[in-house]
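Residues determine shape. Next comes a sample protein:
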Amino acid sequence: MNTPPSPSGARPTGGPPVRLGALVPLTRPGWVEAGRHLLAGLDLAAREVDDAGGIDGRPLELLVRDTAADPERASAAVAELADLGVAAVVGEYHSVVARAAATRADALGVPFLCSSAVLDALTEEPTEWVARLPPVQSRGWRSYADFLLAAGRHRIAVVTQPSVYWATGTRVLREHLVSRGGTVLELDATALGPEALCDALADHGVTALLLLVGSPEPAVPIVRAVRADGRLADLLLGAPAGQPEFAGWAAELGADGAGIPFLRYLPEEFGPLGDRVGKELRERLGEAPSFVAFEGWDAVTVLAAALRSHGTDRAAVAGAWPRVAVEGTRGPIRFSRTPGTGVWQWTWAPVQVVDRDPADPGRFRVLHTG
């Protein structure tokens, strides 16, 4: 994967590399497609940092570790990377895994910039060592609930698997919808097969089913069963966690995977920086980059700015969170304290509800912003 050099063309001139640890799900049961997009963004930004002269003349080196969606593996990776002398750790897509990484980073005094995980409480206690780019789950999922209500969908069912992430999302939806006249029926994907699930949906007269489950299993069989059931022809399928974002969803489901609204964190329109990075990410990936790829690029760019302005000492990097100001691909990035998170948060990351256009599943339609 060749990256065109920046206009400066200034390569690092010497000195030992500045090391960053990168946590990425690259094998199953991790969401491999998300991991591939995240790594593309991380790597592109790191190469661009070097093309612009590195960190005070020193090259930036990414030490990538595969988390495979395993919290214990991620925690061990943070400890290993700390021993290898990284200045900071970046990445991770899965919220439960990111929480384990954040907890270990806090305990070891290693700065951790979470690129893509949204679970509100990344750490049990407030910490100065952790910052995060994506919007918190409660903000994004409340916006999704507002979309459902505006679309006239008040009788909601969620099909879930055991996970603190899915449980938290269900709670956010329930609190927001019920207070506005909606209802939420919870169905267990481990107890109901696709056909039994369809029977329950028909019996309860729900108007929307939200897929709070993994992909492709069991999400894809559930979608196929619902689409084939004439009783559910008017049912809205939704996937707030973003399963339909990736090309694998469209490849598995074709037209059945369209018209399923999901959350993504992109602006309504990109500026020149977002356009340029998007084109380069598309070349690397061989497909349209997801919001996760942009998150990866933004995360490394933020860390590079902190390293250049405050030095490579870990405490100095963590101390830079409230002071760093970076133009990211999706808007200006600054961190502040957000109640209920315990970490430094980019508060105003963009939030959209989008779907794949049934008339052209390769095209996305923006349905709601919040």
